[in-house]
Amino acid sequence: MALEGIISLFLIISVGVYASKKNIITKEINKGLTDLLLNISLPFLIISYFNLKFSDEIKTNIIICTLYSGITLVVAIIISKLLLKPLKKEDKYIIQFSNVFSNCGFMGFPIIEGLYGKEGLVYASIFNVLFTIFMWTYGVGLFTGGINKKNVKKVFANPSIVAVFIGIIIMVFGIEIPSIIMKPIEMVGGITSALSMIIVGVILSNVNFKEYMKDISLYYGVFLKLLVVPIIVYLIMAALPGPTKVMKIIVLLHAMPTAAMLPIFAESFNKDKEYASVLLFMSTLFCVVTFPVVLLIVGQ
């Protein structure tokens, strides 16, 4: 399942590379696609995540999943900061983002569903809620120099954060959205994963890989992301009380490759999008080896 997800990612990325090489998607068009993703398709996808129905027997598990997802994201932030201190690199905040935020949606959801069924997908969706809140606050802060009074309003006015609040209201109050409205939301949101990979492919098509392959920080960042952070999260989860299934799912979601939003944020905030794209590419590639190791440690 993991291998299938990774191959799918690379195939969609190759579409972006091809479209760029054939000048079908220019830099200007790619910027427009990025804006489309950030302002329309991603917010719609987030709202669709909250359209959940669950029985009373798993409500307690959902509460625990919410709490532990938040704890592990904070843990990932702290671990990464400590382990990145020796790294003398100006834009190591890109690796920090990579270590905290994984590809828990496009790659994580189908793998978790394959391992744990629909119930597992509910817990993965709850993790994604916390993930989204952290990404659009702490994650954005990494690229903008921190969440301060000046940009707090911008962050919370962001369409994705607005979508999170709308989604929370829908879930907490059990609001039934008519299918005539929900279906278009899901359809538009459904293009997000493929669109993000195409955008990454366009960015990668202009990258000088030989230059980046000599950068040791990339390999160190991938090692932290795919093995160190997930294993430390696992050790913390093993020491806490709670449903084993929920805890395993949280660990496995942390073990996914870097979030596809990394190079998209880099492009949006005019940072080193090439470095971010190569980091995403390498973490996805090496995940073929590391994910089975983490799965073996965690146990199914």
TrEMBL record:
Transmembrane segments: 6-24, 36-54, 60-84, 96-116, 122-143, 155-175, 187-207, 219-240, 246-266, 278-298
Domain of life: Bacteria
One Pfam entry name: Mem_trans
One GO CC annotation: plasma membrane
UniProt keyword terms in alphabetical order: Cell membrane, Membrane, Transmembrane, Transmembrane helix, Transport
InterPro entries: Mem_transp_PIN-like, Na+/solute_symporter_sf
Membrane topology: Multi-pass membrane protein
Transport found in the keyword field: yes
GO biological process, any: transmembrane transport
Places the protein is found: Cell membrane
Main location class: membrane
Family of the protein in this entry: Belongs to the auxin efflux carrier (TC 2.A.69) family.
PANTHER family named among the record's database cross-references: AUXIN EFFLUX CARRIER FAMILY PROTEIN (PTHR36838), SLR1864 PROTEIN (PTHR36838:SF1)
Name recorded for this polypeptide: Permease
Lineage: Bacteria, Bacillati, Bacillota, Clostridia, Peptostreptococcales
